[in-house]
Amino acid sequence: MPSSILKVIVPFILLFSPFVCFAANEIVLGMSAAFRGPTGGIGAELYRGAMAYIEHINRNGGINGKKILIKAYDDGYNPTPAIKNTIKLIEEDKVFILFNYVGTPTVTRVLPILKSNSHKHIYLFFPFTGAMPHRKPPYDEYVFNLRASYEQETGGLVENFLKIGRKKIGIFYQADAYGRSGWDGVRKTLAKYGLKIVAEATYKRGAKYTDSFKKQVQILKDAGTDAVISVGAYAACSGFIRDARDMGWDVPIANVSFAGSEFIINILLEEERKTGRKYTYNLINSQVVPSYEDLSLPAVREYRKLMDFYNPMPPPNLIDPDYKPLKYSFVSFEGFLNAKVVIEMLKRLGHEPKRENIKRVVESIKNLDIGIDEKISFSEKKHQALDKVYYTTYKNGKSIPIKDWSEWKK
Questions:
Q1: Strands (DSSP E) along 93-161, which ranges?
Q2: For the segment 116-169, what is each residue's pLDDT rounded down to a tens digit?
Q3: What is the domain range of residue 255?
Q4: Whether residue 254 is found in the same domain as residue 403
């Protein structure tokens, strides 16, 4: 066939094939996440952690000579923009996979889009949410998860509180699919012991730290709650902690991984500097990755080295102008691990990766060592690789693993 005709035909094939969706030397990952506003730090740090590893891969030849790119859009942690971004990523940007989405209210709304595009073999990899809808039929086959679920996180928190005699557990949560997912985990675990949630208080998604949460604190306090589990975003969770302590309520308050423990601590430390009061005590966080302070883990050492060396940032148009990146965080470490597993998948897809091979290749990953204390496995029936939940508290200027819960014993 004459080269002049090939020059016309090949771009046409690349544009309209559902399986080849990147330039000859690029593999594009599509990301929709909150980059601005009360939860913007989550998207920014997840992106930064992933790009620290991806940049390292790109500077060392890429994957079979192909560079990895992240095409990212801000959705403000709201479903409608997330839906629009997802359609654009699939239909206009023709990304190879969707990656690193942030939040339950957004992810749950894009699941039908994945199902309707099943003929194109569109998959979402490693969303930053522990909700159940994408872990169960009919959507589980289109999503791969690295992290444990919110049921596992909140269930573990309940178990540990019960062991130390704190049976009157209350919950503060975001009034949407995310909050209810955590609420359901608390409820189910308590039910196993013949117990119920002693009180619950909600807030609306998008609440700011400057908002008042005194009513929510009072509801839980009046019920005699002796431990609180918060399922919310970091701005609201920080405001709730501030108001609880200002009202003289010192019970342990536990937050799940989505809240972003470093963001909460930084907000409360700033409040301590302003007021001279103490807010960063009796705080617990469940985490879905090991501590980035654990230098015995190869992945932690690699993560810190590459974050220091590349110090990646999201495109300036995505983030607030005054955003201050975190040196290290559980969120960026999760993004880093997400990227490691995706890169492994891309390697296994070979020189000409095709989307129709993704599911088979990922489900064949068994006992993959990514440098943490657990190995990674997927299967046709299990699209979640990790089940372990970790627990941290803030002491002596840093987040440390909890080895003994007895200090919160009632």
A1: 97-99, 124-125, 143-144
A2: 999 999 999 999 999 999 999 999 999 999 999 999 999 999 999 999 999 999
A3: 150-287+391-408
A4: yes
